[in-house]
Design brief:
alpha+beta, Peroxisomal Thiolase, Chain A, domain 1, four-stranded mixed sheet, globular, binds oxa(dethia)-CoA
């Protein structure tokens, strides 16, 4: 179905948020002790100073990404006062799906006890939630959907090489969800997505499944300094692009919710936009880098803490493997 050109403009708006963190909380001290047993040397001081991370959550062996997503989704539905049966679109952003196929979104749909609505995964690594929200917004504005569940969920602990101290201290598991509904008023004001596949090798899990076996290396590889350098530049340009599209100024932003990878990148972005650091939502200290889950997790935590309130203007920004990046500017 496409929108009738004569019909009034149709927008999308977030009406509920939810999130979930696995019970197992691993502090830097816990991780440092575990790594020491393997002969891998790190310290709480290095991790905090270089990344801002103090703790992360790791999933248990029996849980899949769709399990984490289901809890976050139910919490977002409750916040929006909707039932699973009200949903007509499910998009899950993840790089750690339950299986090769079907999508985690289809598995989640069944776990929510519903059937029939469109359900698919988006794979844009740490930019995944911004990609998924942009797609859901476009589908709602064109009339293809009216009430969407948009979820970022990851179990990155399963991709980590615990002999590589430069990556294994960075990531965690979790899920965040929003309900996005059709609205007469915006809502989502502007979106911006980008990718540059020439940089695929700087952050990747190069393995795949072939002939009944894992072919290639199934563990995460990252050239941290290269990712850092690219991230700082693209986050500023994506922010300025959505502000320009929406006719807003950086000073209009109440809250900046960037992908939670490294506090130094996040603060650098805020400074470039001349935003005071108290407008920066920070959960990387407690969650680590949860890839596609980090933005909706941070959003939900700040909403439930009463910091983010209806009517405020939020800038969400993702950046990560691909290389991918993007931004969404919205009024809550
Ligand atoms: O989620 C997608 C987006 N991802 C990101 O945005 C990540 C971007 N990159 C980063 O956040 C940072 O580059 C890191 C946190 C990954 C690394 O910080 P850095 O300041 O760029 O450190 P580095 O990689 O240049 O390493 C500096 C030193 C090295 O030692 P030498 O060669 O100077 O002697 C590393 O071996 O720190 C050492 N090092 C560690 N030391 C203790 C690396 N990891 C550790 C560790 N503990 N865990």
């Amino acid at each position: 179905m496409t929108a009738n050109p004569a019909s009034p403009p149709r927008y999308s708006r977030i009406t509920g948020t939810g999130s979930f963190l696995p019970a197992r909380r691993v502090t830097n001290a816990d991780l440092t002790a575990e790594l020491a047993q393997r002969g891998v040397e790190t310290s709480d001081q290095w991790i905090v100073e270089r990344t801002g991370i103090s703790a992360r959550h790791f999933v248990d062996a029996d849980s899949q990404v769709s399990d984490l997503a289901a809890v976050a989704a139910r919490r977002a539905l409750a916040a929006a006062a909707l039932q699973p049966g009200d949903i007509d679109l499910i998009i899950v952003a993840t790089s750690t799906p339950d299986m090769v196929f079907p999508s985690s979104a289809c598995i989640l749909q069944a776990k929510l006890g519903i059937a029939g609505c469109a359900a698919f995964d988006v794979q844009a690594v740490c930019s995944g939630f911004v990609y998924a929200l942009t797609v859901a917004d476009a589908m709602i504005r064109t009339g293809s959907a009216s009430r969407a569940l948009v979820i970022g969920a990851e179990v990155f602990s399963r991709l980590l090489d615990f002999n590589d101290r430069s990556t294994c201290v960075l990531f965690g598991d979790g899920a965040g969800a929003v309900v996005l509904q059709a609205s007469d008023t915006p809502g989502i004001l502007a979106t911006e997505l980008h990718a540059d596949g020439r940089h695929a090798g700087i952050l990747c899990v190069p393995g795949t499944v072939s002939g009944g076996q894992v072919s290639g290396d199934p563990l995460l590889k990252m050239d941290g300094p290269a990712v850092f350098k690219l991230a700082v530049g693209v986050l500023e340009s994506a922010a300025r692009a959505v502000l320009a599209k929406a006719g807003r100024q950086a000073s209009d932003i109440d809250w900046l919710i960037p992908h939670q990878a490294n506090i130094r990148i996040m603060q650098g972005t805020a400074k470039k936009l001349r935003l005071p650091l108290d407008k920066l939502v920070v959960t990387v200290d407690q969650h680590g880098n949860t890839s596609a889950a980090s933005i909706p997790l941070a959003l939900d935590h700040a909403v439930r803490a009463g910091r983010i309130r209806p009517g405020q203007t939020l800038l969400l920004e993702g950046v990560g493997g691909g290389f991918t990046w993007g931004a969404v500017l919205l009024d809550l």
